[in-house]
UniProtKB/TrEMBL annotation:
Membrane topology: Multi-pass membrane protein
The protein's name in its UniProt record: ABC transporter permease subunit
Start and end residues of each ABC transmembrane type-1 domain: 100-299
Gene3D superfamilies assigned to the protein according to its UniProt record, in alphabetical order: MetI-like
Native species: Terrabacter terrae
Start and end residues of each stretch annotated as Disordered: 1-34
Length: 313
């Protein structure tokens, strides 16, 4: 008779069991005061929130102020009026909607072109192996250490000479300004894109090459779809940067009809009419913040996912 299924004596079972001890759940520490030991964090968050909302509240109050002057502006809104908005829209010497259109066109075209060029460079540095690959990446990183202020004089001279031969790409043109922006489109964007490209498995590229696909087809039909979060992230960062860029736009664009929103609104703060035009200035600034706000609200998930995934490689 086999001993595998032999019954075990009751006494042996009792000796094998470990003695049971009553365990009590440790009591949670009592919170002292309002919010416990983290009350200062809530206070700091409230202070930071108030600090961030202070300029927005002041701009809204000044934009809806019927008098529309800096002297009568207050922190808290005293009423609601659309007079400043109507005056801004009907001012023929200051074409607000033309400035708005120029800013949107320059930002959209510049951001799309910057993402495309950055994706091409990132794909080459991530997937291809060629001589000078590492020095090229170091050179792109080195260009980000120099401020754009150092290149303004050189770029002004270059585009002034280009304008003599090709007026559509010279100074005082939106096309020339977009080309100037694209000159600095690489650099940090390539590094951010490459970090995300490296997370895509190389086995997918190898399988596509076995099926006869070229690198161009792999890039356009497969890789771009897999790295869409980082593309959206870079697009948002470049769009916001170009939308609020002032220094280069103020040098390149001199005609009123060619100026961007930032340059045009800045002109309202100069001269003796700055006090009287303050209401229109704040109304334009309030309307100018809408595209950036909508962009972040629409693509905030892609922004967080693209930054976190691309930064760990």
């Amino acid at each position: 008779m086999s001993t595998l299924n032999a019954p075990v004596p009751a006494g042996a079972v009792d000796t094998l069991e470990e003695p049971r001890t009553a365990t009590s759940t440790p009591a949670s520490p009592k919170r002292k005061g309002l919010g416990g030991s983290v009350w200062w964090r809530h206070a700091l968050g409230i202070v930071a929130l108030m600090w961030a909302l202070f300029p927005i509240l002041f701009i809204y109050s000044a934009a809806t102020n019927p008098s529309g002057t800096l002297n009568t502006a207050s922190l808290l809104p005293s009423g609601f009026s659309t007079k400043n908005f109507n005056d801004l829209f009907n001012d023929s010497s200051r074409p607000f909607w033309t400035w708005y259109k120029n800013s949107m066109v320059i930002s959209l075209v510049g951001a799309l072109a910057a993402v495309f060029l950055g994706a091409l460079a990132a794909f080459a540095f991530s997937r291809l192996r060629f001589k000078g690959r590492r020095p090229g990446m170091m050179a792109l990183l080195l260009t980000t250490f120099f401020p754009a202020l150092l290149a303004i004089v050189a770029m002004y001279i270059i585009f002034a000479a280009i304008g003599d031969a090709l007026p559509a790409f010279g100074l005082n043109t939106t096309t020339g300004l977009i080309l100037a922006y694209l000159g600095g489109a690489l650099g940090a964007n390539v590094w951010l894109l490459k970090g995300y490209f490296d997370t895509v498995p190389r086995e997918l590229d190898e399988a596509a090459i076995v099926d006869g696909a070229s690198h161009v087809r792999i890039f356009f039909t497969m890789t771009l779809r897999l790295v869409m979060p980082i593309l959206v992230t870079v697009f948002m960062l470049v769009f916001v940067g170009l939308y609020g860029e002032f220094m280069l736009a103020s040098v390149f664009l001199t005609d009123v009809d060619q100026q961007t929103l930032g340059v045009g609104l800045y002109g309202m703060t100069l001269g003796t009419d700055a006090n009287a035009l303050f209401g229109r200035f704040t109304a334009g600034a309030l309307l100018g913040s809408i595209p950036v706000m909508l962009l972040y609200l629409a693509f905030q998930k892609q922004l967080v996912g693209g930054l976190t995934t691309g930064s760990v490689k």
